[in-house]
Amino acid sequence: MTVVLGIETSCDETAAAVVEDGRYIRSNVVFTQEELHRRFGGVVPELASREHVLGIVPAVEKALADAGATWDEIDAVAVSYGPGLAGSLVVGVNAAKAVALARAVPLVGINHLEGHVYANWLIKPERWRPLHEGEPRREARAPLFPLLCLIVSGGHSELVLMKDHGEYQHLGRTRDDAAGEAFDKVARILGLGYPGGPSVQRAVEQLRDSQGRLPLTKEYQLTRPWLRGTHDFSFSGLKTAVLRLAQGGDSGPVGNPSRHGAVAAAAAAEAGPHPHGAQIAAGFQEAVVDVLVGKTIQAAQDVGAAQIALAGGVAANKRLREVMLARAPVSVLIPDVDLCTDNAAMVAAAGYFRLQRGDCSGLDLDVKPNLRLA
Ligand code: KG4
Ligand code: ZN
């Protein structure tokens, strides 16, 4: 058995986890900084970094305690070294180096986006621990390659073909805003609250009728940015359409947001919830989900993917999960909701598979804020 300690500090969660054999979670500690950043309506890098400094040692200690693990049991330490905020990443990377040096165990640098993908194979203790003593672990699911990954987070919207563990072919990415960033900005425009993704989802759910249907009149049905012939995404036009609707105009043609738009968005956020906020949010969410699902399925067909996997914070979105499951022509993997957003179990999982291949880092590992996958 191989036990990996995972460490994650790429943005605004200070996280540490203990995972067995790359799949079996023994502990998963996430100290979120949501409250700290809420009043600014977004992550303030300097504050995030300082909070990581305060939280990292308690997070690691709690991860070991929750796992009932001693330091002697830890075989390796894995850490996100990019992409993310430099001042945040550096806290986790330095903590991981300290562990590697002090305990003389291998250090494995992990691309944060690869971590999100590996959340798909994680299984929680209550589901893997044997029901009776002496029984083997209950099995975690395994991927089918080639696996098409839709990675949608606060900073990324990517379509990546995973041919095997650690082998990625990049197919497409966002040309402007990431999907999560669009959710966050739309929530701000509509005065729905921070963080944006969950608050947009909540507003839309409250709009459903007793049969679960979403009554959306024509004015709230937004033009989908398909970018046909490519596997790229673009979401800034949808954001502009939302802004127009919020200001009382129609959704208009899809285009680029103006500087005036950003100022108006900030003013709107100050004013509290928009009277038609839920309807506009619903039009936006339906459009984003339609595009994410439609383009993922097209790409899966183009490359002959055996399976589709969702990853990243936006994969927590209820509507995205249900539409993808309903429309995909192949089986779909989706992490548990709480494993979609940033955590360290996913980093430990990815670390285990790299460790298996002898793919370790030196103690000179540095942060790479713009690191890419593939
Ligand atoms: O992966 P993540 O935790 O952090 C990054 O690596 O960026 O993703 C955070 C993003 C945020 O933009 C957040 O609004 C979005 O994921 N998100 C959601 C939902 N939960 C989180 N977006 C849509 N629906 C959700 N339920
Ligand atoms: Zn993330």
Order of helices and strands: EEEHHEHEHHEEEHHHHHEHEHH
Distance between the termini: 29 Å
The averaged pLDDT comes out at 94
In helices, the fraction of residues equals 40-55%
Assign the structural class, choosing from mainly alpha, mainly beta, alpha/beta, alpha+beta, or little secondary structure: alpha/beta
Trace the largest sheet across and list its strands: 3-2-1-4-5
Largest sheet: 5 strands, mixed
- The number of E-state strands comes to 10
Radius of gyration from the alpha-carbon trace, in angstroms: 21 Å
Shape descriptor: globular
Instruction: Please mark out the parts with pLDDT under 50 across 5 or more consecutive residues, or reply none.
Output: 253-259
Number of helices: 13
Q: Strand-residue fraction?
A: 15-25%
Q: What are the distinct ligands in this entry?
A: 5'-O-[(R)-(carboxyoxy)(hydroxy)phosphoryl]adenosine, zinc ion
What is this structure, in a nutshell?
This protein has 374 residues and is of the alpha/beta class. It is built from 13 helices and 10 strands. It has a 5-stranded mixed β-sheet with strand order 3-2-1-4-5, with helices on both faces.
